[in-house]
Amino acid sequence: MQNGMEKLQKRKIAAEKISKILDDIKDDKPNTIDQFLKEIQQLVLSFGMKVCGRHLEDAQDTMQEVLIEFFRGARRLKFNNPKALTVWLYKVAKNACLMSRRKRKYEPKDTLSFDSPIPKGKNEERKRQEIPDWSRIPDRAVLERENQNIIQKALLEVPFDYRLVLVLRDMEGLSTKEVSKVVGISEANVKVRLHRARLLMRNALSKYLNSIYKKGEEVEKETQL
Amino acid sequence: MKKKLNCKEIISFLSMYLDKELDDSLCAHIKSHMKNCRPCKALLNTLRKTIKLCREFKPKEAYRIQKVKLRKDLEKEIEDFKRFIQTTR
């Protein structure tokens, strides 16, 4: 598991990137704005893919609107530090995703349940129940090209409000406080929603990974014979 | 911790346990529960793996950045933002 230190470092790098760009803008260095635009577009597109599962509708027009809202808002709200700008950028990207969702007629139904992973029954009976432990599947097997869609598909099965918190916290690496500002809910609520979102994501992944895990177990048994 | 927690209660703490946000006594309680409860142990392992996979996931289609001609109103906003950073930072 990626430990806390690595996570912190990843975030620091992102903040440092924006900080460096802002310093370069101050010094009026050439091509800085182009670089900044590229960074923003990358973040918005990647975030949009994770949250909406596709590129934003009318990507080019939407992107120009997103950029206008970002620069105008940042100036009006006097956000001149990297942290405030990052939170503001995610807020603008989230609004673009919501608008894009409203435009679409079809959205997948939220069908996942929280209860399914919780063992039921009395103590002894419960302990005999099996939950496939697919955590032993190597990461690369899930993250490799053909299987990458598993994560994307599973993510889209998580209801939007939960997916948003999961993406911001566990994929984009924002802190609880930052997520609370982007989503507009309390930090305590972020924690509750994150826990449910993780359980839902685990359930969704199980649908795809249980079978890979079972196949692996069969292979293991066969090779032992 | 006096009261023994059941599986449902243990599960409600798992995210905070993995984020290292729980006090030592509750952590010890969860660890001891995991030794004796295979379903909860499997749930903990797969939840941990879920978080890890989320952190490492990068959608491959997200990086098609096209250089587009900026609209006039956007160019103006960028210029205003530039001036704002140069005067306030």
Low-confidence stretches of chain B: none
Query: How many helical stretches of chain B?
Result: 5
Biggest interchain interface, per-side counts: A-B, 64 and 54 residues
Q: What distance separates the N and C termini of chain A? A: 32 Å
The quaternary structure here is heterodimer
Briefly say what this structure is.
The complex is a heterodimer of chains A (about 220) and B (about 90). Helices cover about 70% and strands about 0% of the residues of chain A.
Structure overview:
- The complex is a heterodimer of chains A (225) and B (89).
- Chain A is mostly helical.
- In chain A, 72% of the residues lie in helices and 0% in strands.
- In chain A, helix 1 crosses helix 4 and helix 2 crosses helix 4 (82-103).
- The longest helix of chain A is centred in the C-terminal third of the chain and has 38 residues, at 187-224.
- The mean pLDDT of chain A is 80.
- Chain B contains five helices and no strands.
- By secondary structure, chain B is mainly alpha-helical.
- Chain B has helices at residues 7-12, 14-18, 24-36, 38-56, 72-88.
- Chain B is elongated, with a radius of gyration of 24 Å.
- In chain B, 67% of the residues lie in helices and 0% in strands.
- Classes of the chains: A mainly alpha (225), B mainly alpha (89).
- At the A-B interface, helix 1, helix 2, helix 3, helix 6 and helix 7 of A face helix 1, helix 2, helix 4 and helix 5 of B.
Spell out the key features of this protein.
heterodimer, A: 225 residues, mainly alpha, elongated, B: 89 residues, 67% helix
Give the topology, please.
The complex is a heterodimer of chains A (about 220) and B (about 90).
Chain A: H1 4-26, H2 32-52, H3 59-76, H4 82-103, H5 123-128, H6 139-143, H7 148-157, H8 160-171, H9 176-183, H10 187-224
Helix pairs in contact in A: 1-2, 1-4, 2-4, 3-4, 4-9, 7-10, 8-10, 9-10
Chain B: H1 7-12, H2 14-18, H3 24-36, H4 38-56, H5 72-88
Helix pairs in contact in B: 3-4
